[in-house]
UniProtKB/TrEMBL annotation:
This is (2Fe-2S)-binding protein. It holds the Pfam family Fer2_2. Gene3D superfamilies: 3.10.20.30, [2Fe-2S]-binding domain. One of its GO terms (molecular function) is oxidoreductase activity. Keywords: 2Fe-2S, Iron, Iron-sulfur, Metal-binding, Oxidoreductase. Residues 1-77 form the 2Fe-2S ferredoxin-type domain. InterPro entries: 2Fe-2S-bd, 2Fe-2S-bd_dom_sf, 2Fe-2S_ferredoxin-like_sf, 2Fe-2S_ferredoxin-type, Beta-grasp_dom_sf, Diverse_Oxidoreductases. The lineage of its organism: Bacteria, Bacillati, Actinomycetota, Actinomycetes, Geodermatophilales. SUPFAM superfamilies: 2Fe-2S ferredoxin-like, CO dehydrogenase ISP C-domain like. The keyword Zinc does not apply.
Length: 163
């Protein structure tokens, strides 16, 4: 099937198998490997991306279901000059990652948390990220990173305008 999806501001039209998951479309067709696949069964959140402004586990969506959508992956967050998105910057400064496998999904999910609640408490961050697992169990610093990102203001809950 033909599918046209805008990924990180770039419109792509591709021929795909109807069964192809969005996660595999991003990784294997677009070559955007920040979107990780930890379970393929909606459990871990490593594949979280933002589709038309909402966080989505991309292993739960077919590529063809994303026809016409705007998809943002972790690769699409930094500015062209390399300036990190406030959530990325906060994960860096607060050491919110260890092996990094969960990190792109955590970052995307955190943007979703901040979009819904620009100034969350620790508990609200933990509840907002309950669908994302960190096998290194670095949750303490992840929560701190999200709260630090919140100090950047509304931009922390947004993806870049060009996407
Ligand atoms: Fe999608 Fe785990 S790979 S939730
Ligand atoms: Fe290793 Fe989260 S940092 S899985």
């Amino acid at each position: 099937m033909h599918v046209t999806i805008t990924v990180n501001g770039r419109q792509r039209t591709e021929d795909v198998e109807p069964r192809l998951l969005l996660a595999h479309f991003l990784r294997d067709v677009c070559g955007l490997t920040a979107t990780n696949i930890g379970c393929d069964s909606t459990s871990c959140g490593a594949c979280t991306v933002i589709v038309d402004g909402l966080t989505v586990k991309s292993c739960t969506v077919l590529a063809v279901q994303s026809e016409g959508a705007q998809v943002t992956t972790c690769e699409g967050l930094a500015a062209p000059d390399g300036t990190l998105h406030p959530v990325q910057e906060a994960f860096r400064t607060e050491h919110g990652l260890q092996c990094g496998f969960c990190t792109p999904g955590m970052v995307m999910a955190s943007i979703g948390v901040l979009a819904d609640n620009p100034d969350p408490t620790d508990r609200e961050v933990r509840e907002g990220l309950e669908g994302n697992l960190c096998r290194c169990t670095g949750y303490h610093n992840i929560v701190r990173a999200v709260r630090t990102a919140a100090q950047a203001g509304p931009s922390a809950g947004r993806v870049p305008q060009t996407q």
